[in-house]
Amino acid sequence: MEQNVRLKFQEHFSEEGFVYASPGRINLIGEHTDYNGGFVFPGAVDKGIIAEIKPNGLEKVRVFSIDLNEYAEFGLEEQDIPTQNWARYIFGVCREIIKRGKAPRCFDAAFAGDVPLGAGMSSSAALESTFAFALNDIFNLGIDKFELAKIGQATEHNYVGVNCGIMDQFASVFGRAGSLIRLDCRSLEYEYFPFNPIGYKLVLIDSVVKHELASSAYNKRRHSCETAVAAISKTHPEVKFLRDATMPMLKEVKDLISAEDYMRAEYVIEEIQRVLDVCEALKVGDYATVGQKMYETHYGMSKLYEVSCEELDFLNDIAKKNGVTGSRVMGGGFGGCTINLVKEELYGSFVADAVSSFTAKFGKQPKVYDVVISDGSRRIS
Ligand code: GLA
After folding, report:
1. Taking CB atoms and a 6 Å cutoff, what residues make up the pocket around ligand 1?
2. Residue 183's closest CA among 173, 195, 170, 194?
3. How many domains does one find in the chain?
4. Residues 315-359 pLDDT 10s
5. How remote is the CA of residue 31 from the centroid of ligand 1, in Å?
6. Which end of the chain is more exposed for a tag (fewer CB within 10 A), N or C?
């Protein structure tokens, strides 16, 4: 991929620039907890975006998307927003940097990626982080890594329309080979956990389902959580996020909020605790507990948060049937992958059964990705 990016950059701009990369991510546990001030437990993967970039001294940015074979040009003023969706991510990153009082200049860029789109592995965060990291480096803007992640998140909010939390951009920027990172999304404290479960593998099975309305459904989930917090904080003003709430507090407002909002909040409060439980279990090598919590998450995401779908529930059942230690829908949901913690000796039979049973039932083949936990945003050359 890197060679191809260099070739295309040279072809388009007849020059050589600097090459940067940022990855997609997995998340072992802690879903829809980030925007609730809770914990997440992601890691960066070996799939991502690679971009070659060079300042061009012009009044416009010129970018070539190699995968789409599309070209975009735009200025850096708010009204210069490009029409192509993919270019809006890059434009948004530039604008968010400018809003923070920094002055990136215009540049040429060519980029390509290998994070499967719509698989819940955060291809968009990989794109945002690549450009935020690169522009900060090239133009010496002095922005710290957390702010780079926030620039990506704000791009989603203001230029894409997804009110996402910080997890994806954080994992993409902060990833470290071989480690998962537990992030407290309220205090922004984080801790690296070396993750090398001897005798186990982590594998993603991609349902290849992409939900058209995923972003509005996502924003709706977030709204439910905020409604629950508003109700609880009337009698418990210290509650600013669901992270600060307990199940007894939620029960107090059961009749004041809709049954749907109640279920959403219940899932989140339980999920935040599960992340802590998994971290404790990992410290003592108790993979059975890790796996059990993953299944509990799947149940919650399917029945309470309602972000699973028939295909993902089916993959979860197949995992159970094959003795997989832990399995659940990963990421925002509404399609995408399950993440599976499976004993090495069961890996082959599980994957074979998942692929053949899924294909027989849904008439399309799921994709399989082995998880390789890798480094975050970096300059390659
Ligand atoms: C998406 C969002 C994240 C997070 C997950 C669910 O990936 O971008 O901020 O909320 O969904 O955990």
Report:
1. 31-32, 34-35, 122, 164-165, 167-168, 331-332
2. 170
3. 2
4. 999 999 999 999 999 999 999 999 999 999 999 999 999 999 999
5. 7
6. C
